[in-house]
Fold ABC transporter permease.
Amino acid sequence: MDERRPRSFYLLAAFFALFILFLYGPTITIGILSFQGPEGGLTFPMRGVSTHWFEELFRRQSVGDIWGAWRRSVVLGLMVMVATVVVSVMGGLAFRKRFLGSGPLFYLIITSLIIPSILISLGVGLIFSQLGWDVHWATSGFGSQLTWTLPFGLLIMFAVFNRFDRAYEEAARDQGATAWQTARHVVIPIIGSSLIGVALFGFTLSYDEFARTLLTAGSHNTLPLEIYGMTTNVTSPVIFALGTLTTVFSFLIIAVFLIVAITSQRRRARRGSDAGQGMV
């Protein structure tokens, strides 16, 4: 048998390698340039290798508030994450049954993904201003970001509940479980991995969102806005050092969510195995 791979395999492999390089090349370049020496600039060739610019990043900057912006982004991301998970689960449960206006409501939710983000930001900012409310990252910024994260969370939950076997719920009710007990001990554990995915979507989409926060953050920047402001006044590799650290932080967040998902799946499998052994 001729086991030689066809030429198309190597062409596709080369194309995929180029795609990966295109996708991660800028991030790798920023990571490399962030380790320049004290005399380094913003372009190649590098002038020495050191951690000087990381040390500069942790010193007080003459312009901006990097770490304050980072804390605001993390807090806002957690707020958006929790709201996205809760509303997505409630929406997914509600849409399992057709109700009056469910069709137009679904399309209304999806529409926010089509409208340009800057128009969403402008509209939310204007509404808060007209109502006399303060434009602030924790209120108007929070609301504008939910228009971005909620549709993704709801779409995931719609797909999950379309495949959900209601026999599990019926069995729980036959055993005398209340609606809350059924949701807590049956539904939530089964869809737990999907909830982790929705939570990751909510946090990451919020953490790096720029356009929908631009006109709704008020006088306090989130990290994406702070980085954008730094591009106009920082002309040293310290901005590359910040980019490297935020990239590492993003990968750590993904790793944490993956660990939680794997742990929950193993725990669920162990409980199922124990229950099976108990019935023998």
Observations:
- The radius of gyration is 24 Å.
